[in-house]
Amino acid sequence: MERFNHSVVSEFVLLGLTNSWHIQLLLFVFSSMFYVASITGNTLIVFTVASDSNLHSPMYFLLANLSFIDLGVSSVSSPKMIYDLFRKHKVISFGGCVTQIFFVHAFGGVEMVLLIAMACDRYVAICKPLHYLTIMSPRMCLFFLVAAWVVGLTHSLVQIAFVVNLPFCGPNVLDSFYCDLPRFIKLACIDTYQLEFMVTVNSGFISVGSFSLLIISYIVIIVSVQKHTSGGSSKALSTLSAHISVVLLFFGPFIFFYTWPSPSTHLDKFLALFYAVVTPFLNPVIYTLRNQEMQTAMKRVCRQLVSYGKSS
Fold first, then answer.
1. Per-residue confidence (pLDDT) for residue 311, from 0 to 100
2. All residues at 6 or more sequence positions from 52 whose CB lies less than 8 Å from its CB, including other chains
3. Which terminus of the chain has fewer CB atoms gathered within 10 Å of its CB, N or C?
4. Is the pTM of this model over 0.85?
């Protein structure tokens, strides 16, 4: 992550979201509220699943890990973006920029695999209920978790390995509020067509492929659900709708970032802000609003925390 001899750029200037003082103030309030709510909600889910024995099941194990990843997603760019809103000169060091890119893609890769694992979990629970605990064993859950981290870290390291040694001799201005790979590559002093194609293949096609796989799997599950009784179908469809909503929220911005040939700067920034600030907040909201068991467990944990605080 150190500055290399063949690169004269030691930092990058971020143009941010807007130059309007009133919009900056609005964004500060909006982003701060959603960031705090995201950290609180996802932390509460992780703590609830870990402390409540009634939630020690494959579905909630995967949900807790998804919330843990969302803690990372919301913290990669949001704090600096909020801090930079009132700074006239927004800069990030070369090492900080590369580090930000690394974690954005690492967390994105991990979350992608976790969403696929959660789809597999719902498929087994609905289509093969008698074999659910046998197939979704603790070993299988651990396998999904390890695979998610291996895929996420490998995906990110491969991209960083190609771009970290690029020469940068100016300009050093990024029209964004965080370091994103496509704009970062375009600032290099060499022809980057092949690298941009590699990013499209590595991030774009993987995103589209995973999204297509998930949509097909949910269609298969929904078709299978129709064969169940109306009561079971209603509960299963409610759970599936939460999963599908999270999948759309996650893959929508990713597919746009890495497959759209000439994205609009304003739309690009809006989706980046939505992904960094809003999506990590909506994930716990979607899962808890549609899950009575999780709501009950969270209330029970909150009461325990309140009573513990009073006794101490």
1. 67
2. 297, 300, 301
3. C
4. yes
